[in-house]
Amino acid sequence: MDRRRFVTASALGTAALGAAATMLAKPAVAQSMPEVKWRMPSSFPKSLTTLFGGAEYLAARVAALTDGKFKITPFAAGEIVPPLQVLDAVQNGTVEMGQTAPYYYVGKDPTFAFGTTVPFGFNARQQQAWMLHGGGLDLMNELFKEYNIIGRFSGNTGTQMGGWFRKEIKTAEDIKGLKFRIAGLAGTVIARMGGVPQQIGGGDLYPALEKGTIDAAEWVGPFDDEKLGLNKVAKYYYYPGWWEGNAMLWSLINLDKYKELPPAYQAALDAACAETNTWMQAKYDAENPAALRRLVANGAELRVFSNEIMQAAYKATFEVFEELAGKNPKFKKVYESWKAFREDEFLWFRVAENPYENFVYRQSAAEARAKQ
Amino acid sequence: MDRRRFVTASALGTAALGAAATMLAKPAVAQSMPEVKWRMPSSFPKSLTTLFGGAEYLAARVAALTDGKFKITPFAAGEIVPPLQVLDAVQNGTVEMGQTAPYYYVGKDPTFAFGTTVPFGFNARQQQAWMLHGGGLDLMNELFKEYNIIGRFSGNTGTQMGGWFRKEIKTAEDIKGLKFRIAGLAGTVIARMGGVPQQIGGGDLYPALEKGTIDAAEWVGPFDDEKLGLNKVAKYYYYPGWWEGNAMLWSLINLDKYKELPPAYQAALDAACAETNTWMQAKYDAENPAALRRLVANGAELRVFSNEIMQAAYKATFEVFEELAGKNPKFKKVYESWKAFREDEFLWFRVAENPYENFVYRQSAAEARAKQ
Question: Among A14, A242, A260, B179, which residue's Cβ finds the most Cβ atoms within 10 Å?
Fold first, then answer.
């Protein structure tokens, strides 16, 4: 951390920044656009070109927005920070920022889960709407602030798949004793259903599943799961991932470091996060269909979770939520905002989006059948 | 257009730009961050705080990203340019950029419709994915280039409502002779079904419907429709808007003016468009539910389009597409890309997103009923 510190522009205001710059007697251009170098460890391996690719895209966009003056270097999972300790490294100031999923930190506080996703929650658009216009982002940043962090969402996967299972799972009874790699609060739900949840970073899933250390693993969806090779060590590919109607990725930024940035660099970072958010979701949506076709062609067997399992999971989920809300006031505050917004979103999406999509997907399925 | 012209940085590259700047013998800061003032007329009235609000948000973000040096002033529909002539004004260089929906210009070329939406097309996420990772944006910019324009998408409404009807519409027969305000290629589909399509700017819908000049009008969805007061002049509120599974708004930028911008300002404009895109969709999603509740409480009667009407419209739509593709090579090229991408997206969304959403919406509807 030997780089030059500069004035806290957001605190001083632009006029004051000008005065401070004059006092420091540097050329004006150096003051308004200082050279800044940051390190950004990711929770994800390089092979995942959509998740880690998002970190690279974000860095490139910040550079473009600042004429190359604000340079962020992404590091893959484990290169400088272990995959599930990115939040800690940002909090400590070991690094200025990181790319991760807040729900990896439910061990510190289950409230973190709302930043990424919770079971039977929002789709990607609803999550965004809650964040930007429903108070979600401010609520999450209240929590992050306790860790000296400011968060910006910067990616999404959309609804995920239910993961890879070595055996078929037909009833809620089949969950009992199942050693299942699953992230976030969903682990607590799986435990309530009698399963044995495991939290493991993406790069370590293949060997765990291969050795039989775990019976099943969920990761993201076709494009990423194929890259991790999960289809080679488990045959049954379940859907939908009822615990991840969306999964939002975040840039977590050390709050002191963020405040030190000139306002235009803060804006560049914020804007690059927004661009990356759209870029990543679009890339998943564009890459998943062909990956799904390849997986099925190579022997993956698609299975839908039975209604019995879905109903049991739904019941267990809201029991867990209510219990957590009863003993954790932070969880309660965010949960109540989330729940009210969810009721509104689901009402509205039942009117316009869902009937539209049901119609076009039915037509499209009928056309696909007619072609065969 | 009396402001200072500066070197075309994207063509020269950064090193060459430095050399050119030295030759011009101006202080370095003026070269890297020149003062730029642009005008941005919108196709939308000020009252529509989500659409026109998007133009204001975009201008604010560009200012934040450039330390206030790049100033864009939005103008509401009709203030300096008529609502449906924004593209022309940008093409002519009367203004540097504008906010509009490309499908307003299907009279020039029906291919423009793909920029916004076409009947039975993508939802908002699928449209984004096609644009960014499916070749859609490049295809649209090939078309815009013929008009000396470069386009950036910068907003979406999501799936729209089917609009306001003075009488109930139960069968395909009821479309015949219907004077219906409807935008884009959907007008051609309505004409094929025997209706009489009208293209009218948002601000003029209320009087047209009130006087009975038209029998029905579609605009966007609850939040905007309520602001235009359409519920006061027509009672039946139909869904879903099968001609607008999404509707993408655009920033159209005069290509010469865009090329004149320093690279960091081009990046700022691009990034602000991406931020606005998410901001607008999120605002619609957050505002629509309460607006829908108010409209229904004030007497609007929700009606779903019958399957007979949906099927007839679907058939008419693809007949229109095939005919246009047969006689317009530009349309054919974009249509084929769109169609292949649509088949992929619909396949994938049928696996993960749609079963997930159907489950949570069913649960949510059952809970709402149980409360009553």
Answer: A242
Helix and strand numbers, DSSP H then E, in chain A:
15, 11
Q: Cα(A20)–Cα(A31) distance, rounded to whole angstroms? A: 9
Q: Is residue A241 part of a domain?
A: no
Q: What is the ipTM of this complex?
A: 0.91
Tokens of B352: 């993960």
A109 in any annotated domain: yes
Number of structural domains (chain B) is 1
Q: How far apart are CA A86 and CA A254, in angstroms?
A: 11
Give CA–CA dist B37/B116, Å, rounded.
27
- Touching check for B196 and chain A: CB below 8 Å? no
Q: Judge whether A129 and B157 are in contact, CB under 8 Å.
A: no
Q: Would the CB atoms of B282 and A132 count as touching at under 8 Å?
A: yes
pTM metric for this prediction:
0.92
CA distance A94 to A97: 9
* Tokens coding A14: 């632009």
d(CA A227, CA A100): 19
In a domain, B353, yes or no: no
Residue A152 to residue A99: CA distance in whole angstroms: 10
pLDDT value, residue B31:
58
Mean pLDDT value of segment B264-281: 98
Residue A111 to residue A102: CA distance in whole angstroms: 9
Q: Are A143 and A330 in contact (CB under 8 A)?
A: yes
CA distance B82 to chain A (A): 30
3-state SS track over B321-369: HHHHHHHCHHHHHHHHHHHHHHHHHHHHHHHCHHHHHHHHHHHHHHHHH
Best probe of the A interface among B244, B295, B310, B353, by most A CBs < 10 A, is: B353
Which candidate in A122, A288, A357 is best for mutational testing of the B interface (most B CBs within 10 A)?
A357
Residues of B with CB below 8 A from A29's CB? 27-29, 32
Q: How big is the A-B interface in CB pairs under 8 Å?
A: 258
**Alpha-carbon gap, residue B254 to B274, rounded angstroms:** 18
**CATH number, domain with residue B87:** 3.40.190.170
Contact of A65 with chain B, judged by CB distance below 8 Å, is answered with yes
A289 and chain B: CB distance < 8 Å anywhere? yes
| Nearest-angstrom CA–CA distance, B99 and A147 | 41
Show the low-confidence residues of chain A (pLDDT under 50). 1-30
Angstroms from A210 CA to nearest CA on chain B: 25
The percent of residues above 70 in pLDDT, for chain A, comes to 92
Domain that holds residue B70: 32-158+246-286
Phi, psi of B175 (to 5 degrees): -75, -30
Give the tens place of pLDDT for each residue, B188-231: 999 999 999 998 888 889 999 999 999 999 999 999 999 999 99
The alpha-helical segments, DSSP class H, found in A328-352 are 329-351
Out of A132, A240, A262, closest to residue B352 by CB: A240
Query: Residue B79 burial by CB count (10 A; 0-12/13-18/19+): exposed, middle or buried?
Result: middle
Distance from CA of B77 to the nearest CA of A (A): 25
Rg of chain A (C-alpha set): 22
Pick from A14, A129, A351: CB nearest B285: A129
Query: Can you give the length of chain A in residues?
Result: 372
Residue range A1-19, pLDDT digits in tens: 333 333 333 333 333 333 3
Structure tokens at A249: 């990725």
Spatial CB neighbours of B35, under 8 Å, sequence gap ≥ 6: B3, B69, B71
* Cα A338 from Cα A330, distance rounded (Å): 12
